[in-house]
Write a structure and sequence with these properties.
Elements (H helix, E strand, L loop, with lengths): L4 H5 L9 H14 L5 H11 L5 H13 L4 H41 L6 H25 L10 H17 L4 H25 L1
Helix pairs in contact: 2-5, 4-5, 7-8
């Protein structure tokens, strides 16, 4: 059985070595993510650790986004559970939440008296702008994975454009956008998958 050139050139996918590796890796990941962790998660799990390929990351992140709860928590549970079952999922979750929770409590106690000052508010706005830039940069980087999406690059970009228009420009509630565009995109993906199997 011959491998495709694409598969031969892709780096070998790694796996977490132990539950301790999961805990430490997600602790370090959590300590890097201020205001948005998408950029950090993609860099750590795909580029550095190679626990996921880019396509797998896009698929898992998509599932994590539609599940209840924070996206990165859902992703940590999926990766930990896939590697070591329930203990692995709990180790990844503990790594993700323990150190940031302690830091947030210490930070909240330290800045309780100055949080409403113009300097503190300006710093928070600056961090928000940096976070938005990082998320936009990762979104552009992940567009490369659309070439293997069954819906095709242009269909995916069309759905993204409609979503952006509905939320950012028309200010429609997120629930209504999900309930309207979500099923339409799912039906179109199902149609494209069926057409691909026939081909």
């Amino acid at each position: 059985m011959s491998d495709s050139p694409e598969a031969a050139n892709s780096p070998a996918r790694q796996a977490p070595r132990s539950k301790t590796d999961l805990f430490v890796s997600f602790t370090l990941l959590a300590l890097q993510g201020f205001g948005g962790v998408l950029a950090v998660v993609q860099r750590e799990l795909v580029d550095k650790k190679q626990w996921l390929t880019l396509d797998e990351f896009v698929e898992d992140w998509s599932v994590a986004q539609i599940l209840p709860g924070p996206n990165v928590v859902n992703l940590a549970l999926m990766i930990g559970g896939r590697a070591f079952g329930l203990p692995g999922a709990l180790a990844a979750l503990a790594g993700l939440l323990l150190a940031p929770t302690v830091l947030v409590l210490l930070f909240a106690a330290a800045v309780a008296g100055v949080a409403d000052t113009p300097v503190a508010q300006g710093m928070l706005r600056g961090m928000g702008a940096v976070s938005a830039g990082l998320i936009a940069a990762v979104g552009i980087k992940l567009m490369g994975a659309l070439k293997s999406n069954p819906m095709g690059r242009w269909s995916c970009m069309g759905v993204a454009g409609l979503t952006f228009t509905a939320i950012a420009l028309l200010r429609l509630p997120l629930a209504w956008v999900l309930l309207s565009l979500g099923p339409l995109a799912s039906i179109w993906a199902w149609h494209c998958l069926g057409r691909g199997e026939l081909a």
